[in-house]
Each structure stands twice: as C-alpha cells, then as structure tokens.
Design goal:
Layout: H1 2-27, H2 40-47, H3 51-62, H4 69-85, H5 89-102, H6 107-120, H7 123-136, H8 141-163, H9 177-183, H10 186-204, H11 209-229, H12 237-249
Helix pairs in contact: 2-3, 2-4, 3-4, 4-5, 5-6, 6-7, 7-8, 10-11, 10-12
C-alpha cells in the first residue's frame, strides 16, 4: 500500500514537472510568463499606409494592457501619423496626446500635434506645441520653422486687431459728413482702410511714374465722387466702397 502511494506521488510530481517544461518552452521564459506583444506588424502597416491592416495590427498592441510602454508609444505615434496622413485629425491628435502623456520628451510628436492643431484652426495650441518641441530640442528644424511662421501670423493678427474699426484717416480731424459716417461705422472704417492699403500697394507696383500718377488720379476721382454723392437719394456708400475695392484688387482679389 505504501509503495502504491509513493508511485502515485511520483507520478503527480512528474506530470507537474512536465507541465512546467511545456509552459517554459511555450513562453521562452519563466513559467507563467506572458508572450510579448509584437509591435512590428503595426509599424509595418502604418509605414505602408495600409489603413485596413494598421487598424487591427495597431489596435492589438494599443488595446492590450500588457503591452510594454515603449511599444505602446511606438504604436500610438505610428497610428497617429497614419491618421494624420488620411486627414483624420481628431484621431491623430488623440493618439499623439496619449503618447505624450506616456513620454513628454517626444519633440517630433509635439511638433506633429502642433501641425494638427494648426489644421483645426487652433493657433494658440499649435504655438504651444511648437514651443514645447523647441524646449525639448532647440535645434528641431521643423518646429523652429513652424514656430517662426506662427509667431509672424499671430503678430499680423495682432496688428489687424489693433487697427480694426479704424479708417485710413484720423477721425479726430474728420470734417465731412461722409468721413464722420465712416468713422462711426466699423464696417465702413475697415473698408476705407482696405481701399487705402490696396491703393498704396498698386501704386508701389506701378511700372512707371506715369502709371503711378494715373492710379493716384483714379483714387482721387473716387474720393471726389464719394464726397459729392454721400447723402444724396439712392447713393449707397458701402456699395460704392466695395466696388472701388474690387476695382483696385481685380475680380480675383489681386
């Protein structure tokens, strides 16, 4: 009886040992180790611009809670870039944002997300991301170019806001009724400033002094007609100003 018990115990031990050996061979590591998630198919599909394959391959990596952090970041950045190329801006921003939460030292990803914000029209967030990329890597060429362009754009917007609602002349010295009307109407004031700016642009581009004088004469004639016509029945100041602006800029606005 005792021999039978020993035999059963030995058999159980042997089965247990074999099961450990199988587990070790299957995982390539210690017993109970989890098979590593392969990020390569995701990266390959994204690189090949294959949305269908990337959808499943990258999701298998990104949605698996056991994926290593480094591989998760790689998959998120790769899928984000793929989404961006296919104009799925919100999805691309979401992937880039998640990657940056995991690793806030990714200058390329900050720059990429900045470009995405720019496509959405969110210039403040774009500038913020370009600046973040430069703080990480001051020599990041794309981020430098993007940040510089945005700084100029914001400066231009600021300058436009500073003169918004102001005509080309000093309202403090306005004497004519038409000038006071322009000063008292933001839309007319903006139109007057645009007309003046466009007029000066074409004067500067004149090919000869004679052409410049002709352009100035046309502007003077418009001002004279405007001053004489304002207040008369049927005269539409806004329409006259819009027509003059179109005349200067041409049908296409140039």
């Amino acid at each position: 009886m005792r021999s039978l018990l020993l035999l059963q115990s030995s058999g159980a031990a042997l089965i247990y040992a074999l099961s450990l050996a199988v587990a070790h061979a299957a995982t390539g590591g210690e017993p109970g180790a989890v098979a590593q998630i392969d990020v390569a198919p995701c990266l390959a599909a994204a690189s090949a611009d294959d949305m269908d394959k990337a959808a499943s391959a990258c999701a298998a990596v990104i949605d698996n809670e056991k994926t290593a952090k480094a591989d998760l970041i790689k998959a998120l950045v790769a899928r984000g870039a793929l989404y961006a190329r296919h104009d799925q801006i919100d999805r691309a921003i979401a992937d880039d944002s998640r990657a940056l939460l995991l690793d806030p030292t990714l200058a390329d990803t900050f720059n990429a997300r900045g470009e995405l914000w720019l496509k959405k029209g969110d210039k403040p967030k774009a500038v913020q991301d370009f600046g973040a990329a430069l703080r990480i890597d001051p020599n990041h060429e794309k981020a430098k170019a993007n940040h510089k362009a945005m700084a100029r754009e914001l400066e231009r917007i600021g300058a436009q806001m500073a003169v918004a609602g102001k005509p080309s002349f000093n309202c403090a010295g306005a004497r004519r009724a038409v000038e006071r009307a322009i000063c008292g109407n933001r839309e007319l004031a903006d139109l007057d400033r645009e007309i003046y700016g466009s007029h000066m642009r074409v004067v500067r581009k004149a090919r000869s002094p004679a052409e410049a004088r002709k352009i100035q004469r046309e502007q003077d004639e418009f001002i004279a007609r405007r001053n004489a016509g304002f207040g008369r029945p049927g005269y539409d100041l806004k329409k006259a100003m819009q027509e003059r602006l179109q005349q200067i800029n041409g049908v296409d606005g140039y």
